[in-house]
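=== Structure Prediction Worksheet ===
Name of assembly: unnamed complex
Input type: mixed (protein and possibly other molecules)
Chain count: two
Listed entries:
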Amino acid sequence: MILNGVLIDDTFAEAFGMKATRLIVTAHNLKWALHAAAAMTGFATSVIGCGCEAGIERELPPAETPDGRPGASVLLFAVSTKELTKQIERRVGQCVLTSPTSAVFAGIDGGEALPLGKTLRFFGDGFQMSKLIGGRRYWRVPVMDGEFLCQETTGMVKAVGGGNFLVLAENIDSALAACEAAIDAMGRVPNVIMPFPGGVVRSGSKVGSKYKALPASTNDAFCPTIRGVTKSELSPDVGCVLEIVIDGLTDADVRAARRAGMDAVCAIGAAGGVRRITAGNYGGKLGPFHFRLREILR
Amino acid sequence: MTAFSFALRDLPRQRLDVSALTPDRLSGLSRDRIAAIELSSGNRRLRVGDLFDLSGDDVADLRFEGSCGRLDRIGAGMTGGRVTVAGDAGDYLGLAMAGGRIEVEGGCGGHAACGLRSGVIHVRGSVGDFLGSALVGELHGMRGGTVLVGGDAGDRAGDRMRRGMLLIEGNAGDYCASRLTAGTIVVLGNVGASPGVAMVRGTLLAGALKHGLLPTFNDCGEHALGFLNLLQRSWQGLPGGFGQSPAIPGRVRRYMGDLGNGGRGEILLPA
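=== Predicted Assembly ===
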């Protein structure tokens, strides 16, 4: 399949099941809501080394937040309920509770309830107060700028993590332009995040390493500077490869985001220096969710 | 399906306990069997059919008509459905109610919503003393649910209340929120003497004070508290003043007390 001069490989991306929640972070103005949300989703690119994958889903106008203030919607993904619980407590406790004027609310009501304010309230040292409003419990924790308002629990749902596609381009400029266009388009799809910096990864990995301690190592088949000494996947006209990883609440969400992203890359096409789109998989053994590139773009 | 209606023929000579007439208890009963139910009135037992004209067929939607001011325990213990009182209701309205909705088009007597666990009680007129409070010998008053009062409330509203929301559009009497354990009481008008006496936790938000605060409440300054936005939003769609925006001020002066009882409760007044 060739779209606008871009070769679409007949392969599939592989994704695995994760646990996820959505949090709504609000503040006195959007600037401070984004400060809190950005801090909370920092160092959350991969579950391998960060404990969770997290990102800002979108900015929220006052009309869409529980307390009528500007805010941001944040998605967090982890491999287990226990790990997600730990990450929520740490990240909200260290990054949202600490951020001036912030408040945090559950963005998912159903599913298993994970503690949010339920544990953070103890920071109030006995001065915290709870309020049951509209069937939901909130905690008011006194802090130095007033009160930190926090919903008691947030809902957890099963989700899909790790869906990816690789953009093979002529050079770094064309690869970056294509990926930036893809991220812009994917950012408009609800229920997904692209957890890496700017949504883009340059250090794609393969399973295993010559060093026994490492579970994963550089994806040498797609590294242009060693194409002459490894079993390279790259043709001579490819000088740069970037990857986009997607986490979503459902496989349909991941599929929709992939479609939007790959459409944007193909729109730039060969004229913009894009040569090929492919995907990383592990032979179908890693995860139950398979996204065939050509099926999605058909 | 039309609401099952109990039209009172004559004003009873003594107070009448109608706690047997709730949607739960009448479910599945024919009109004849309902007419045969005996109600307590003083030391007498009176049949429903001798007191009321019955009409309608939907026992999940009950309606009391006539001079109902002597009908006590309307909706007591109900867990679902709807009860409407076309006029005044007597004492113990919604006693230990655990679900459903009660609408009173007039006012009601004392001890309304005592032991309320869940559901909504809306009284368009005024209510008597001990709204949402504990019965004698009980540790807690209402433990959940919402009570909306269009008029005034008597003394001791929310006494020993444990959870839930009392929303009073008019004024509240003396000792409002006395011994309050938790929950939220909002009075858009003023409150009488000694509000919050011996309160442990919980919130009393009042439009004004009639007689000032007890010396066991300490001023914590003026604040814009975020949870007030949530409260305000949760009232959207309510009839009367609470449905209007803003029903409560954005900034409040916070007093914490009762310091004679732990001091973790709060009284909020417009800043």
